[in-house]
């Protein structure tokens, strides 16, 4: 009986992540197909990706940049809209924009005794505007969530680490069960 239970849990460990992933993507694909009225599975996602890419290409023109700046100014003037718009824009920009913010992984001594440490990403090199001259802002992602918190630490408590940012984020979000390889340094010539 113990062996059967062991096989059951082994199967669950292998099948559950794959099943959840397939189910989530099936939901997304079918929802987008329904919204756009497509009967071919996945056509809605393909069209959406193509339109977003085309829009990205078009925004590289001077006229489109002016229109985007105009929309940006307009959204930033509306109180509640500004909160949602700016937060979404900044969050996406932090991960995939030209001004990525989660590209400096660090380990932080969270207590004076140095025993407890946490992983995070430096998001602001200086906190002088808040009267904290020798401090930095560190984004600390939460495990099993797509959220986190920003904390301010003395620069002396924050140490850069040589790991890939995406791998460190996956490590923290997975609760520490994902492997993290040391960052590959480019060969010197």
How do you describe this structure in short?
The chain is α+β, with helices and mostly antiparallel strands. The protein has helices at residues 2-36, 43-58, 62-77, 79-96, 165-173, and strands at residues 105-109, 117-124, 135-141, 148-154, 158-160.
Description of the structure:
This protein is an alpha+beta fold. It folds into two domains: 2-96, no CATH class; 105-173. The chain is 50% helix and 16% strand. It is built from five helices and five strands. A five-stranded antiparallel β-sheet has the order 4-3-2-1-5. A hairpin with a 7-residue loop joins β1 and β2. The longest helix has 35 residues, at 2-36. The radius of gyration is 22 Å and the shape is flat. The mean pLDDT is 81.
Please compute the radius of gyration using only Cα atoms.
22 Å
Total helical elements: 5
| Helix content class | 40-55%
Sheet of most strands = 5 strands, antiparallel
How many structural domains are formed by the residues?
2
Multimer state: single chain
Span between N and C termini? 61 Å
| Residue runs with pLDDT of under 50 for 5 or more positions | none
Cα shape: flat
User: Which structural category fits the helices and strands?
Assistant: alpha+beta
């Amino acid at each position: 009986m113990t062996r059967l239970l062991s096989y059951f849990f082994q199967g669950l460990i292998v099948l559950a992540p794959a099943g959840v992933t397939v189910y989530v993507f099936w939901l997304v694909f079918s929802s987008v197909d329904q919204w756009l009225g497509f009967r071919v599975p996945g056509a809605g996602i393909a069209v959406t990706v193509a339109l977003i890419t085309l829009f990205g290409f078009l925004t590289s023109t001077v006229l489109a940049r002016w229109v985007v700046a105009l929309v940006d100014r307009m959204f930033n003037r509306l109180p509640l809209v500004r909160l949602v718009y700016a937060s979404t824009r900044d969050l996406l920009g932090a991960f995939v924009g030209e001004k990525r913010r989660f590209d400096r992984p660090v380990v932080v001594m969270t207590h004076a005794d140095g025993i407890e440490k946490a992983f995070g990403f430096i998001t602001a090199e200086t906190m002088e505007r808040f009267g904290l001259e020798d401090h930095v802002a560190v984004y600390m992602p939460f495990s099993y969530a797509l959220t986190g918190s920003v904390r301010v630490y003395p620069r002396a408590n924050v140490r850069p680490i040589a790991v890939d940012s995406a791998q460190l984020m996956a490590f923290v979000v997975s609760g520490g069960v994902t492997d993290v390889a040391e960052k590959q340094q480019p060969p010197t010539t």
